């Protein structure tokens, strides 16, 4: 059995270049026109033939356009099913010029590729070629010459070493003729030169990346400190509001409630709470605000009336708590005053000690006024 090897891919061949060519309307053909031709090319709809001259119809096709692409100002094609005899004639220089034929839009601009014609000699007598069957149906088209062929299939293109030798010869005369380099040597030298040239830039990029990383870390640290200070302030402001409304006593601080408020302030984001609005969405509130609202709705724990200023007087002091004073608060105050006098400590310290020893007195209404 004989294996069939897949055909090698055709090289890209230039078939048209932007320059002085104009469309049917007299406008210069642009890169945008070429891009439109490439995008619209579909061999399933119309497979553009490779021909000799510009046939109207029923003339042989010597190949077919497989793909189109643009490169700078040039339109390129890849061929398929090219007749070998015709390809040999092209390589021998029998067809020095080629011309592309384009369909045009009603406004005269180029629309799609019709065929690619090679000019300069009589077509070879090759039997068995598939005839071109144009189905233009009255569509207008325009034929534009490209010029001398270059980059044709089978031509010997200069290697990298040949191009380097030609450059050295032009630059330094015959000295380059004595040099002997392989293709691998040329590529190695080019790679080493490119690496050496890029080394200072790479060093600079590394320095910039290091500085950027440090600046990012410093910024994150500053943001963290600012955020922590802001959260602490929010907790302190919430406690101050509760104190102003008589909903906070020193015993709360002794029990660690201030730490609880600080922790709630540090938690980002909001939660849904309360009745939904007309649009069906529930209000959003922070955890700190939710707990502050809860404490505001509790009964007042600090009695109304004259408040003790925390200083121990040299003589007995009468404090007026009012007719509706909470009995536990009165008793807590009495014990704190006595403790402050007995141990010569501040009223706040005495209150914290008494509250810790008698936690029931920190709750409203648990004992009778005056009970010890």
How does this model look, in words?
- The protein has 372 residues and is an alpha+beta fold.
- 39% of the residues lie in helices and 15% in strands.
- The protein has 9 helices and 9 strands.
- The strands form 2 sheets. It has a 7-stranded mixed β-sheet, covered by helices on one side.
- Strand 5 and strand 6 form a beta hairpin.
- Helix 4 packs antiparallel against helix 6, helix 4 packs parallel to helix 7 and helix 8 crosses helix 9.
- The longest helix is centred in the middle third of the chain and has 62 residues.
- The radius of gyration is 47 Å and the shape is elongated.
Write the SSE topology:
Elements: E1 13-17, H1 31-40, E2 49-52, E3 63-71, E4 74-80, H2 84-91, E5 97-104, E6 110-119, E7 141-148, H3 160-172, H4 183-244, H5 250-254, H6 257-266, E8 271-272, E9 284-285, H7 287-296, H8 327-343, H9 347-357
Parallel strand pairs: 2-6
Antiparallel strand pairs: 1-4, 2-3, 3-4, 5-6, 5-7, 8-9
Structural class: alpha+beta
Q: Report the sheet-strand fraction.
A: 5-15%
Strand order of the largest sheet: 1-4-3-2-6-5-7
Q: Largest beta sheet, briefly?
A: 7 strands, mixed
Mean pLDDT: 75
* Envelope shape: elongated
Tally of contiguous helical segments: 9
Order of helices and strands: EHEEEHEEEHHHHEEHHH
Cα Rg = 47 Å
Q: Quick gist of this model?
A:
39% of the residues lie in helices and 15% in strands.
């Amino acid at each position: 059995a004989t294996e069939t090897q897949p055909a090698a891919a055709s090289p890209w061949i230039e078939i048209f270049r932007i320059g002085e060519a104009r469309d049917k309307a007299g406008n210069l053909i642009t890169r945008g026109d070429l891009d439109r031709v490439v995008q619209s090319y579909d061999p399933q709809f119309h497979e553009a033939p490779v021909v000799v001259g510009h046939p109207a119809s029923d003339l042989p096709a010597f190949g077919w356009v497989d793909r189109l692409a643009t490169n700078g100002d040039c339109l390129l094609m890849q061929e398929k099913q090219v007749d070998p005899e015709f390809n040999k004639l092209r390589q021998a220089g029998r067809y020095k010029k080629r011309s592309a034929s384009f369909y045009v839009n009603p406004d005269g601009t180029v629309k799609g590729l019709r065929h690619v014609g090679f000019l300069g000699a009589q077509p070879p007598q090759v039997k068995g070629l598939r005839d071109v069957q144009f189905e233009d149906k009255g569509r207008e088209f325009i034929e534009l010459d490209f010029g001398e062929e270059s980059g044709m299939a089978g031509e010997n293109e200069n290697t990298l070493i040949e191009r380097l030798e030609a450059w050295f010869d032009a630059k330094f005369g015959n000295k380059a003729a004595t040099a002997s380099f392989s293709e691998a040597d040329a590529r190695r030298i080019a790679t080493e030169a490119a690496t050496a040239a890029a080394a200072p830039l790479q060093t600079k990029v590394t320095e910039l990346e290091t500085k950027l990383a440090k600046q990012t870390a410093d910024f994150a640290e500053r943001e963290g400190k600012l955020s922590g200070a802001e959260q602490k302030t929010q907790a302190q402001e919430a406690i101050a509001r509760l104190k102003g409304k008589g909903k906070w006593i020193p015993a709360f601080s002794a029990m660690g409630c201030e730490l609880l408020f600080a922790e709630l302030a540090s938690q980002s984001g909001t939660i849904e709470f309360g009745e939904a609005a007309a649009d069906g969405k529930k209000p959003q509130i922070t955890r700190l605000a939710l707990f502050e609202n809860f404490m505001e709705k509790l009964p007042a724990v600090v009695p109304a009336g004259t408040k003790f200023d925390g200083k121990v007087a040299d003589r007995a002091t009468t404090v007026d708590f009012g007719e509706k004073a909470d009995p536990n608060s009165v008793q807590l105050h009495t014990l704190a005053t006595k403790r402050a006098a007995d141990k010569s400590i501040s009223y706040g310290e005495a209150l914290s000690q008494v509250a810790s020893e008698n936690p029931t007195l920190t709750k409203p209404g648990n004992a009778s006024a005056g009970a010890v």
